[in-house]
Design brief:
The complex is a heterodimer of chains A (95) and B (491).
Chain A lengths: L4 H10 L6 H22 L19 E2 L9 H6 L4 E2 L2 E5 L4
Antiparallel strand pairs in A: 2-3
Chain B lengths: L1 E3 L2 E14 L36 E2 H13 L3 E2 L2 E2 L1 E5 L9 E5 L5 E2 L2 E6 L6 E14 L3 E3 L6 E5 L6 E7 L6 H17 L12 E10 L9 E6 L2 H20 L7 E6 L4 E7 L9 E2 L6 E2 L2 H10 L4 H12 L3 H7 L3 H14 L4 H19 L10 H12 L5 H12 L9 H8 L8 H14 L1 H8 L3 H14 L6 H12 L1
Parallel strand pairs in B: 15-16
Antiparallel strand pairs in B: 1-2, 2-13, 2-14, 4-8, 5-19, 6-7, 6-18, 8-10, 9-10, 10-13, 11-12, 14-15, 16-17
Helix pairs in contact in B: 2-3, 5-6, 7-8, 7-9, 8-9, 9-10, 10-11, 12-14, 12-15, 13-14, 14-15
The chains are: A mainly alpha (95), B alpha+beta (491).
Chain lengths: 95, 491
């Protein structure tokens, strides 16, 4: 299995990465290289092996439902590019 | 079945509901989820997606999901997985929402709905597909920031349970009945406060139409309906629009639409062509969620009796009608209040207790805009009051006065408030025949003209005499008894 240039551009667009034609060609080669690794792995017989959702065969640890955080807005907003009235300001977005 | 210009159409609706879970803290961080805080004071480093932070799952949120799964007879998955749903929006700082995709925490289940009023109500069972845990996004404010968008991340990371129904609903009325039943249930089991104004319970409706027997039509999804009325209006508009479009020879394009309450119309937000490709994958920051059977069994042991079971028991144990039992199990507060009142009044008073809770108390509570739990008349006080009607100590009319007096705090806060007021104000019903006869004799002597009219055949005069007699007893006599005694005296 290998990707097309069109798919590379689509994935880049979804990831909000602006790539040039040259970069798209480079990425295509690199991604197809990864795909060949995956193909090699897919050749392994995994019949009867339960798929894992995580590399570690462990269960999620849980925390008690308690409020442990205090208000640190001033510190967080001190490093934000722009704030006003307690809000973070970003370039205008309208869906 | 909906009637178009050219024959009938079947409506097919499935609903996705986001219920905000009633936890103290966020699903993956220790920040508070209290409503109404100043912007961003409840947005911690995890919620802001600062570099190096990791999510830690809230046990309370998982327990809410278990409660829900048990309440709808679903499978609570022993093993479920959190996934990243990738999209870009400024109120989603990580660039992905942590959700569940292939392996949700709750699988299947069902909910019984009742459509229609009173005796004409019909039952229908709606299958649930799944329910999964996820985090809410922040809030974008598009006005008043000199061409910029303001971001408040207090809501980011708030725990949600997304509950997905099968497309088993076939009208807006059924959709509303489903949403109401689900709303009542999540409040009943204490996992969501159900506050729709604050966005704690919001619905998306997937709507399509088809000719009877035809394959499913193309659906459009109406997003973010935060009232039952809007849900009804949006679906009604959407169904009409789809039928007209198809009958005019048009085609439905899969799309996400928004409902505008001002115009009463739905409008397209995005079509399938520019639909998001979320590129879900298991979140490597979170291990699989494992729920042991011991945990599930402990939660099962703590579950309240569910609405349907309580409703059936009210009918069987208290002889209530289906309508009364449904009304009294509309919320856990009402049901608990009613049961406590009956416990104080005695099972023989179950039906009058039902009337008092559903009519007199409910009216007073609605007028004051308060909850049952906050009513100044406690369930025990009401039960003891109803017991005094049942044992003929007072009439129903006098009881209304006593009720108001208890409400005003006149009888004190004890369970015996009604008895104290009856005693203090001398409201005991006069049942002593001799005493009533004496009063009637006085009335007859004072109103010879009315007596003469009655003897001349005017039945109206009799009613006037009953009125006079009741007045003489200050309303404390049993009206039937006065009626009888008066008639026998006039014979």
């Amino acid at each position: 299995m290998s990707l097309t240039l069109e798919q590379v551009r689509h994935v880049a667009k979804l990831a909000r990465i602006d790539i040039s034609d040259a970069e798209a060609h480079t990425a295509l080669g690199e991604l197809n290289g990864i795909f060949s690794l995956i193909e090699a792995m897919q050749a392994v017989d995994t019949q009867g092996v339960e798929p894992m959702a995580h590399a570690l065969d462990l269960a999620q640890r849980l925390r008690d439902d308690r409020v442990t955080e205090t208000d640190r807005r001033a510190a967080f907003q001190a490093v934000a590019p722009e704030t006003e009235a307690g809000l973070y300001l970003v370039p205008k977005v309208i869906e | 079945m909906n009637q178009g210009a050219a024959g009938g159409w079947e409506v097919v609706i499935g609903i996705e509901t986001h219920a905000q879970l009633a936890t103290q803290s966020k699903i993956f961080s220790g920040a508070s989820i209290a409503f109404g805080a100043e912007p961003n004071v409840q947005a911690c480093a995890v919620d802001l997606a600062l570099p190096g932070v990791l999510p830690v799952l809230n046990r309370g949120a998982v327990e809410c999901a278990i409660r829900f799964g048990l309440a709808v007879g679903a499978e609570v998955a022993a093993h479920s997985v959190f996934a990243r749903k990738n999209y870009f929006y400024p109120d989603l700082p990580k660039g992905y929402q942590i959700s569940q995709f292939e392996e949700p925490v709750v699988k299947g289940g069902q909910l019984t709905i009742r459509v229609g009023e009173g005796d004409k109500a019909t039952e229908k069972t709606i299958r649930l597909t799944r329910a999964h845990l996820e985090e809410d996004a922040g809030k974008s404010l598009h006005e008043d920031f000199h061409g910029k968008t303001g971001i408040d991340l207090n809501r980011a990371g708030t725990p949600l349970l997304e509950i997905v129904s099968e497309p088993d609903l076939s009208s807006s009325a059924e959709a509303v009945a489903y949403a109401r039943a689900l709303h009542a249930l999540v409040r009943w089991i204490g996992i969501c406060d159900g506050n729709m104004q604050e966005g704690s319970f919001r619905c998306d409706a997937n709507v399509s139409v088809r000719r009877p027997g035809a394959p499913l039509g193309t659906r459009r999804e109406i997003k973010n309906l935060n009232s039952f009325r809007f849900l009804q209006q949006a679906i009604d508009y959407e169904v009409r629009w789809q039928i007209e479009t198809l009958e005019d020879g048009g085609r439905i394009q899969q799309a996400t639409v928004l409902f505008d309450p001002d115009s009463g119309e739905t409008r397209t937000m995005r079509t399938k062509e520019d639909a998001h490709d979320y590129r879900y994958f298991p979140d490597p920051d979170l291990l699989p969620l494992v729920i042991g059977s011991d945990w599930i069994e402990r939660v099962r042991g703590e579950m309240p009796e569910l609405p349907d079971a309580k409703r059936a028991r009210f009918m069987a144990d208290y002889g209530l009608s289906a309508y009364d039992a449904t009304t009294l199990t509309a919320s856990l507060e009402v049901a608990n209040y009613y049961e406590a009142a009956v416990a104080a009044a005695g099972a023989a008073a179950a039906k009058p207790c039902a009337n008092w809770v559903m009519v007199d108390l409910a009216a007073r509570i609605n007028r004051e805009g308060i909850d049952f739990a906050a009513a100044p008349v406690s369930a025990q006080q009401l039960g003891r009051l109803v017991a005094r009607i049942v044992d003929n100590t007072i009439s129903n009319n006098i009881a209304k006065k006593v009720f108001e007096a208890i409400w005003a705090g006149e009888g004190g806060s004890g369970e015996d408030a009604a008895d104290r007021i009856i005693e203090a104000q001398g409201l005991k019903q006069i049942t002593d025949t001799g005493a009533i006869e004496a009063l009637i004799d006085g009335v007859l002597a004072a109103n010879p003209a009315m007596v003469a009219e009655f003897r001349a055949g005017k039945e109206k005069a009799f009613n006037a005499l009953v009125g006079q007699a009741m007045k003489a007893t200050k309303g404390k006599a049993n009206p039937q008894q006065v009626n009888q005694l008066l008639r026998s005296k006039l014979q």
